[in-house]
Amino acid sequence: MKDWFNAAELSAMALPGLPGTERGILDRAEREGWHTRKNMAGGALARKRSGRGGGVEFHYTVLPTKAQAKIAAELAPVKADLAAEKSQFASEEMWAFFDRLPDTRKAKAKHCLAVIEEVNALYRGGMPKNLAVHVAAKRNGIKSEQTIWNWYNKIAGVPRADWLPALAPRNTGRTATVECSPEAWDFIKSDYLRAARPTFESCYRRLGHAAEAHGWTVPSIATLKRRIEREVSRPVIVLARDGIDALKAMFPAQERDRSIFHALEAVNADGHKWDVMVQWPDEDKPMRPMMVAIQDLYSGKILAWRIDKSENKEAVRLAIGDVVETYGIPEHIWLDNGRAFASKWLTGGIENRFRFKIKEEEPVGILTQLGVEVHWTLPYSGQSKPIERAFRDLCDNVAKHPAFEGAYTGNSPMNKPEDYGSRAVPIEDFIRVVDEGIREHNQRPGRRAAVCRGRSFEETFNASYAQAPIKKASDEQRRLWLLAAEGVTAASRDGALKLMGNRYWGDFLHGHMGQKLVVRFDPDNLHSGLHVYRLDGSYLGWADAIEKVGFNSVSDGREQARDRGKFMKATADLRDLHVKLTGEEIAAHLPTPPALPVMESKVVRMAAPAGSDPLMKRPAAPQPAGLSAEEEAEADRILAAMSGAETEGAEVVRLQVVQNGRPNFETDEEFARWVFDNPALADEADRARVGELMSDPSFRLLMGHAAQEKSRRA
Predict the structure, then answer these.
(1) Per residue in 225-245, pLDDT tens?
(2) Contacts of 622 (CB under 8 A, 6+ apart)
(3) Which pTM does this prediction carry?
(4) If you ran DSSP here, which 8-state letter would residue 21 be given?
(5) Which residues fall within 8 angstroms of residue 336, CB to CB, at 6 or more apart?
């Protein structure tokens, strides 16, 4: 056996954990970065294949653990022979060479061994190998980390007991090197390791200008480039020039085994924005819709999905609710740590589309009530969200569907198709095609996942679901996922409810006519009905939707009349159950009241003249009581003075008018009459004084008589 294999050889060996085709192995090698991996000594684990055909060979240690185990079992005899040969060489040659070295070189070999032991100790403690080499180099004053990696190359494949002679220096003398000023070296490193990613040639030209101005010593461009590659590690170059995402891609991805679950034990959810322009009936301009989907981790089947204008909390809530109602309650759920999935949800959209106040109920709290353990993943991390692989499949098979020709936007501004923006798909047609595409995605055979073994996602899910312990949700738990509208008032006449242009009714609503209630509903299925609650959260019942019918529909009118007749008959039957006594029977149960004494009237009505009916005539105003002769003479005098008439024995008094239109009053009658005739000139104090005067019966009698006399004279 051998240690190096190409893709064709690996596919022919049918190793566990690897694809069965040469193309699949090459794709995996590209995805997991087999070409850039190194062993503990820093040696490359990929090399060009010698011989006819060329290509690349990979060391068997880059393969998955199961595949390595199978190959290692067959390589064991060969490895034993190689180890024996190296051990014999170390005993006969390496130690003899080491014994002939002077103490200075032996001391250098011991220093190299101490540094390697320090790196190994840090590595065994959990520190990454690259970081351990960096730390050891700093502690021991080693300028270049590549020096330590070169020491590892010397001991690769050598038994631990022979590391010391293997590390002994074997050079015979000093090699002359071209001098480079430290300032020049720092300049070109800082210039080259920038996010703008300048070429090394442009950096060297700028270094030449700076060196000429400052008198720096600069070697050739090839010398500096080799030094950069030798002393600056590749991860540092990638981080400085390409960014943190490129550096993250250099670290091998973790391969997660999902076969430890059963169907519905664990699910993951994420949002996907479609690259298709869709037209909503209530929107002026088309837009790209957003889909929230839930995927079973064991089988890969998409269990539920909802489409909305944005990724919002209601879409997430309803999609998870579809899973709970259709299949059951999962034990684990992996959610994206975004606003729509993590309590800090988007506020736009749903409150504007629905009237009434939408209750804020976080899905995390509801999941906790159901006993679902929530796990958060990193945004845009496909390694922790397998559903993103399903989204890539849907992009190719659904977004580019012939029915969406002209509406497909491309997955980036640089990939716009020729007919971009020529049409928009109606939302009904879009949902229909997406539904067909997801059904085909779930039912497509030949899936290569370990648990599928050539079956479809749906077949794999159904086989495990039939044998798995599934926790089902009760009716009360299923209602938790519906949206809640608070403050819906039941009609005061019949108790009917109105929500978003629809009417709903249930006979239990008669007990809550005119009251504000809470309703739970599915916005995508408003014609089914509503769950109705009191404001305190107690459940009342189910209200069916009342559908509109044609104005001239005879059959619908008959059905309505039939339903109304049934309702009225049932109500009459209930009335008969409650009403046990007739009116006569109720009266018979009442006791006879005792005879009441005869009451005499204390007010005697004057007999009306013959031919008149006192009930048919009423005086226009109350008549004052009669006055004595002295009172009548005084009243005539006052009236004459107020009207300006000359009467015998009465002195006419002319009221003096002041500048503001208010006269000087000599009597209360003058003052009261002026207030009555000039209400605009009187103030609050005047009106209060007149009220006090009018509370006296004699004053009222005097004022009434004067008014009657004035009317009679007029």
Answers:
(1) 998 888 888 889 988 999 887
(2) none
(3) 0.44
(4) S
(5) 269, 270, 271, 342, 376, 377, 379, 385
